Amino acid sequence: MARPESKYADFEGLRERAVALRRQGHSLRQIRDELKIFNNDILQRLVKGEPPPEWTKRPNAKDDLRARARELRLQGWTYDRIEAELGCSRSSVSLWVRDLPKPERHDPTEQAKLAARKRWEHELAVRDEERKRTKAAAAEAIGELSDRELFLLGVGLYWAEGGKDKAYDRRESVAFVNSDPGMIEVFLAWLDLLQVERERLRFGVMIHETADIADAEKYWADLVGADRAAFYRTTVKKHNPKTVRKNVGDSYRGCLVIKVLKGADLYRRIEGSWYGIVVSVREADHRNRA
Question: Concatenated DSSP letters for 146-203?
Fold first, then answer.
């Protein structure tokens, strides 16, 4: 049986003319009319491999979806995931990406671990954001402290972190130790409230030998606004190689010690105030129970 193109003696010549017209921007209909080729199969063979001109392409509402589908496929997504992500049919996905290489198969166990890790990372981000919001709201709720509030706060801070007098070791002196810059600032504000002159304060740094001692000394001196002459010699702690320390890095600056000279009377006031707070709490609890 004769092939369709056998009707056209000079098929290659026709193809050259058809290709030339195609490249000039002619549509299939224009090429058909120009060359008098009314067999659609022959017409398609004559322009095979030549893309249609842009003006002949119809707008396609799915062009963006197709581009996104191909992008996801190149990222290793399966048909099912692309279908769910884009909300289109599986047949459309197959048509759009069938010429692309199949994604490498992964161990289902590894895929499960990856999915779990992503979910956990998302959960951590949500928790961190909630943590920030809670802290910000709590900080804003404090507002301005009254003198009485600062006084009671300072007494509590000292009784938690300061040196105390013992029956077996009389030490009616004021010495406060902490590594938190905020605690140091609050304690100094408390001393100012009690009209303790800064000239009566002495400072000292306690730090591990593996830290940057000079940097820590400068940091604390700048924080409290004191001359280095007001600092005792730094106490350096020997490192125990059997101990795994977590207080390391650039943020580690040891602890600052604040001592008040001639502080016996101040210490007695602190201790008395603390016992007054305890008694007040006990009485309030007794009234609530009655």
Answer: PHHHHHHHHHHHHHHHB---BTTB----EEEEES-HHHHHHHHHHHHHTT--GGGEEE
